Amino acid sequence: MSTHAPHAPQTARLVALPATLDDAVAALAAVPAAVPVAGGTDLMAGVNAGLLRPAALVGLGRLAELRGWAYQDGHALLGACLTHSRMSRPDFAALIPALAAAARSAGPPQVRNAGTLGGNIISAAASGDTLPVLAALEATLLIAGPDGEGRQVPVSHLLAGRDRLRPGELLAHVRVPLLHATQTFLKATTRTGPARSVASVAVVLDPVHREVRCAVGAVAPMPLRPLDAERWVASLVDWDGRRGLAPEALAAFGEYVGMACIPDPEVPGDGGEPTQLPPAVLHLRRTVATLARRGLGRALA
Amino acid sequence: MNDQADAAVTMVPAAQAAPGQDRQEPHGLGTSLAPAEADAKVTGTHPYTADLWAEGLLWAAVLRSPHPHARIKGIDTAEAAGMPGVRTVVTHAEVAGDAGLGRTVTDRPPLASDLVRYHGEPVAAVAADHPETARLAAAAIVVEYEVLDAVTDPEKSFEAAPLHPDGNLIRHIPLRHGDPGATGEVVVEGLYRIGRQDPAPIGAESGLAVPRPDGGVEIYTASTDPHGDRDRLAACLGLAQEQVKIYVTGVPGALGDREDLGFQLPLSLLAIRSGCPVKLAATREESFLGHAHRHPTLLRYWHHADREGKLVKVEAQVLMDAGAYADDSAEVLAAAVSFAAGPYLVPNAVVDGWAVRTNNPPAGYVRGEGAMQVCAAYEGQMDKLAAQLGIDPAELRARNVLGTGDPLPTGQTVTCPAPVAELLAAVREAPMPALPKDGPVEDWLLPGGPEGAADPGAVRRGVGYALGMVHMLGAEGADEVSTATVKVEGTVATVLCAAVETGQGFATLARQIVQDVLGVDEVHVAPVDTDLPVAGPGGRGRHTWVSGGAVERAAKMVRTQLLQPLAAKFGMSAELLTIADGKITSYDGVLSTTVLEALEGKELWATAQCRPHPTEPLNESGRGDAFVGLSFAAVRAVVDVDVELGAVRVVEMAIAQDVGRVLNPRQLEARIEAGVTQGVGAALTEHLRVVRGVVRRADLAGYALPTALDAPDVRIVKLVEERDVVAPFGAKAVSAVPVVVSPAAVAAAVRAATGRPVNRLPIRPQAAVGVTRGAV
Lengths: 301, 776
Fold this sequence. Notes:
Chain A: This is FAD binding domain-containing protein. The complex is a heterodimer of chains A (301) and B (776). Chain A has 301 residues and is an alpha+beta fold.
C-alpha cells in the first residue's frame, strides 16, 4: 500500500522499467528529475520516512546486462546491479575476495538479496561496506550517459564529491583490477548479528606493483587511504619470499593507520595544552589499528 | 537446540494425524497447550491495529516538539488547516478536559500548552484524507518557541528551577534499617550507571478512533490497560466514562504493559472533531519519541562486610531520571529502594532514593522496573567485595542469601518461598558450555558475528554469577482486583475477562484453568473491550495471579452449579464427584455421565473476582509491608570477549528460577528465554542515545536490539516449584525476573573475562577491552 498522496498532480508517479541500458539512459533523459532505483534498500527507506519524494523512478531491475560481470584486460567489469548476495558467492569470492567479504557482512539476508553494488556507491553512506574495498582497489566507475558509456570516474572522486554524476547519467559498471593475491575486509560492529560498521578496514595486496593498499571505512564520510602507512609497510614485505611480517611490524602498521585516520588534535599555536581526544574516539582509533593489524596479518599469512 | 527443533517437528504431524481428536492435545494446567492464535501469528494473519480500516477514514499525524525545553509563544495552524485534504487540526485549545496524562500521577498535558518539556512532546495533530497529506500539514503548523535551558543531568535537577508546577523532586525515599552507624571490617564503594532501555515493541503504536453519535468515541487499539486508558482518556476529553469505549486489538509486543495512550488522545480528539473515523500508525521514530523508556539510573554503593564475607551493612544512593513527567516513577523508585540490597540478608541498610524530573525523554514502566537497575549495582558490589576478600564470587553470594522468614530492609518478612540458596547452587553445579577449541573452528561463533573481525587469539572467556528479585503485582497499597466470567453451553466454555492477551499467555492459561475445573476441552476467550468489568493493567504477573484467580473461581462456581443437582439426585456430596475429559464420575464409580448430559441443555454462567491481600505504602523511613509476593532467579553468564576490540558475545545464560508452579511448560520457557534475551540487550546494546535532551538515531539501526545471532543459548537448569500458598495455583510471575538478573550476570562475566570494573550498562566496547593486552 502506498502512503503517498495520489491527488496532487505534481507528484504524479512516473515509473519506467527499461530492459536495456540504452533505454534506461533514454528514460533518464526524458524525465531529468527521475531517480534510478535498483534494490531500493536505501531509497525506499528514505521514501517511507518521508525524507525523499522522487518525482519519477527509473527501475533498473530488468537490466540483465548490469547484473553480472565480465573480464576485460586483467580487470573485472562489474555490473552496477550486482547484488550483495551474488557477490557473496564462492565464484565471485575467488576473484575479488575482499569485495565478497564486504558483501557478506552487509546487513541481513533480505537486504543483501536486494541491495546492489551500484546502490552502495551512489548512496555513499559512510558505513557502506563495499566502499573501503573499492577505494583500496582503486576501482573506476563507468558512467553511461546520453553520449554512451564513455565517462570514467575514479571511485574516490565520486565519493569525495570531486566529480558527480551529471543529469541523465547512470552508473553502469565498476572496473576493478584482478590482483590474484590475498585481500581482507574486516569490520567492527556493535553486536553479533548484522549491523552497520563502526569501523572497517580493507587490505589488498598488489604483488605485481609490490604495493599494499589499505582503506578505512565508516570513521569519516568517505573511505580514508593511509598512503604513508601503505608505502612504509610495502617496503618491509619480502615480495619474492615468504611475505609474512613480524608481529611488531604488523602492530606498528596498525598504529600508523590508526593515527593517520584519527590524528591527535593539533597542538595550539599559543603553546597551550593540546586537547585530549575523548575515550570513545581513542577506542575508535584502537579499533582501526586492531583491524588494520589483523587485516594485514591475515593478508600476508 | 537440535532436540527442541526435532520435538517441534514431530509434534506437528501428530496433531495433523488426529484431527478432531481433541483428547490427543495437551489440556489443563501443567501441559504445554499451544496459544489459540499461534498459527495466525506465525502465518501473518493475526489482525493488529495497523491492519484496521473503516469506510471514509482519515489519517492522523502528530506534530512533536523539536526542543527538549521551550516556551510556546504561539501556534499558527492556519496554513495547515487550509491545505487541500486536511480536515481537522487540533492543539491544546481543543482539549476539553482539564486532566493530565500519566499512570499513577497525571501531570502531563495531553497536548503541550505553554511549555514543551521533552524532545518529542506532542504539540498539535492533524487529520487528513491521506497520511502523507497529514504529515505535510503537521509540518506546516508554525509553532513559535522560545528555547529554554534544558535540565538533562538528573544531579542538577535538585537545584534547577522547577520544570513543572509540581516541582522537580518526584519522590525521595530514605530507607533506614537496623543500625545506620554500623560498619564492617571491609568496605567497597562503587558507582554504577544504567542506560535508557526502550521497550521497542515490534509493532509501533497505532490506533483507530471512531466517533459516536453521543459525542463520545470508540477506540480500537493495543491497550494493555483498557479501563485505565478509558478513564484517563475520558477525563482528558471532558467526557463521561460511558462515552468512551476501548476495543483491544492484537497487541504487537508489550513488555507486560504498553503505553499507547499518548497516541490515542490526539486520535480521539481528531475523530470527535472531524466526525470521521481517524487512524494513526506511528513511524518507528515517533514510536521511540512517543513512549516511555526505562529510568536511566545513577547509583552509588558502599557494602560493609566482615572478613568472612558476611554483609554487615549496605549503603546506597539511587538517583532515577524520570524525564519530564512523573508517570509511574514513584512506584518504580519504591522497587529500586526496597530491593537495593538484593536477595541477601542484610542486618543494616541506609538507602536513599530519588526520582527527579529532567528534560530527558519520559521514563516509565519497562519490565523489571527499578529492580533491574539496582541488581546491576548490588551484584557489581558483590563481585567487588569478593575480589577484595579473595573469596569466590559465587561462594560470597552463597554466604549471604536470603531465605523464607528473613526480613527485607523494608522490614517486611519474606513469607513466600525464597529458594535463593537452591537457585544459586543449581547454576553453580550446571555443566559449563563446551570450549570452542573442542569443536571445529567454523562452528565457533566469535564476538562480532560470522563476518566479524574477531581474532580467536584475542578472545577471552568469562563466567559471571548474579542473583536478583522482583515483586509481583502492584505495590504499596495498590488495589489489585480482576473480574472474570465463565460460561458453559453444550461442549463449549467461554471466558470473558478484560485481561489483555499481550503474548504473555493469559488467554492460554484461562483455557487451561477452565479445562481443568470443568473438564470441557473447547474453551474460547472472548475479545476484550471496556464493557467488561475491570481486570487492571498487565505486567508483574498480575493476570496470572489476579485474573487467573478470578477465572478459576468463576469456573468453580459453574462447576458447583453443574454438580449440585447431580449430587442431590444421587444423595451424595458434590465433593465426591470428579470431572475429567468431559465425564463426571463419582468416587465409587457408580455414577458416570457426561458434562453435556449433566447440562441438560442449560447455559451456566458465573462471575467472580480475585483480590489478593492488601499491601501498605512505605512510610517516611522506607518501611512497610509493600509487596504481595516476590520472585527470585539466579543466572550464570558465560561470555566471549575480543579483548582488543571490546566485542562481547554471550555464549550461554544458565538460569534457575523460582516459579512457584509450572502451569504451561513451553510457554514458561519461552517467557524466560525472552526475558533473558531482553536482559542481554540491556547489558550490551540497548540504549536510546540522547544528547542534551535530543534523541539521536531513533530507529532500529541506531537502537540495536539483539538479533538471532546475539540471543544466547538459554539453559534453564532448574525451575524451583515451591508453591506460594497465597497465590492462585501457587504460581509466581516469570517474565520480569530474568530481565532483572541477566544484565548483572553479563556484566559479571565481562568483568571476569577482561579484569575491568564494568560499572555501566550497556557495556561500551571501550569498557570491555582487556587490561592485560590490547593497548595499541
